[in-house]
Amino acid sequence: MTGDRTRPRLSRNGSRPKPPIRIVHLGLGAFHRSHQAWYTQHAGDAAEWGIAAFTGRRPDAATVLAEQDGVFTVVERSGSGDTFEIVGSIVEAIDGADVGRLTELVAAPATAVLTLTITEAAYAVDATGSTGGPTPLARLVTALAARRDAENGPIAVVSCDNLADNGNVARQAVDALARAKDRGLAAWIDANVSFVSTSVDRITPRTTQADLDVVADSCGYRDEAAVVTEPFHNWILSGDFPAGRPRWEDAGAVFVDDIEPYENRKLWLLNGSHSILAYAGLVRGHATVAEALSDDVCRGAVEGFWDEASRHLTGDDLEIPKYRKALLERFGNSRIAHHLTQIAMDGTTKLRMRALPVLAAERGAGRSGDGAARMIAAWVAYLSSTAQFHDPLASDIKDAKRLDGEHRTAALVGLISPELAKDTAFVSRIHRQQVSLTATSTHA
Ligand code: CS2
């Protein structure tokens, strides 16, 4: 039987001693395990850097990982086979609701780095400095107050979410939350907390039971916290680490002064085309990235968007043709089942980052921006085709969906950009694009 339940459970043994906690992470999910935890394990000074990782919305990932004392398997899945590696850099896995433990760890003198994978949508803070609940950033601000009170000095906050200028976005959200609480705290954060911007990359779909069975059969143990990822990995960082950091460069991380060109290359070319494949692919009856890419209509939409985005990616080291070629290979790796429904989530937040900058740059240069517009059109078509979507603006989307024809399209576009929704010619174009996508659907 595959994944035999009688196999021993993976655990930390004497050969994997626990490094001391010096990193606190918010957002323990598959991506944290395949990326920041993997990089930390591969730093030359890994023995000095342990991670305490807190979950986001649900405690499940912490419960499962804690039963294995934090260790898990990274399965690197290439087009031709799997390799397995046990990662031990996470030394404590904690329910995100445990603000007491978070406060204690952030306030501890040994803690030097706070990393975040809390999703793009979690950075939204309203004008009053409210996130509308005990969100990760609200908890972080509570914990930073304890570090100030303990007088344990500066620390770095490292955003690892797919947002342009993510360090600055994190800084502004934290500042607004701190101000609403206590102005002195906001001033302390301003003087003591360094916000590091990073561009992160490693395609890591949600783990399935079949993946866990592969680990059991290949490794001889049961690992309920294994992650499957591609061999490719990339991490570009910009900013100060006033209390030190692991030597992530030993694992291939790159430290730069100006991160913007790299961020844009990744957000537009990879994430932007992911969103096109997700929405157009789902509308056309596909389930995974590799399947969608093999459909000429989806592939054409991706290439059209890439041509537009590439005109605005002009840095010397960006090597755009090489990057595009590598992306086609990465997306085409059909042994990685990257489900389009996972990428389709939170479209309003993602499209503002992935479609709008390219659209604005193209229109600013006097061109149509049709390639970027098609990403928005695919999203409109997708929402019209399903009742199963996940989005921070879900109730506004439901309201918009009660309308018909171009009115519906205008209302949906307005959730991404109120300004564009007022441009009737643009809305008509999006409407025609989405109709034609649906009309050519292979499963219409
Ligand atoms: C994807 C990303 O779900 C999504 O929106 O575009 O998670 C993507 O797989 C990663 O950024 C790859 O590094």
Structure description:
With about 450 residues, this protein is α/β, with parallel strands linked by helices. The chain folds into 2 domains: about 20-255, 3-Layer(aba) Sandwich (Rossmann fold); about 260-440, N-(1-d-carboxylethyl)-l-norvaline Dehydrogenase, domain 2 (Orthogonal Bundle), CATH 1.10.1040. About 50% of the residues lie in helices and about 15% in strands. The chain is built from 20 helices and 11 strands. The strands form 2 sheets. An 8-stranded mixed sheet has the order 5-2-1-6-7-8-10-11. The chain has a 3-stranded mixed sheet with strand order 4-3-9. The protein binds D-mannonic acid. D-mannonic acid binds near residues 162, 201, 270, 343 and 350.
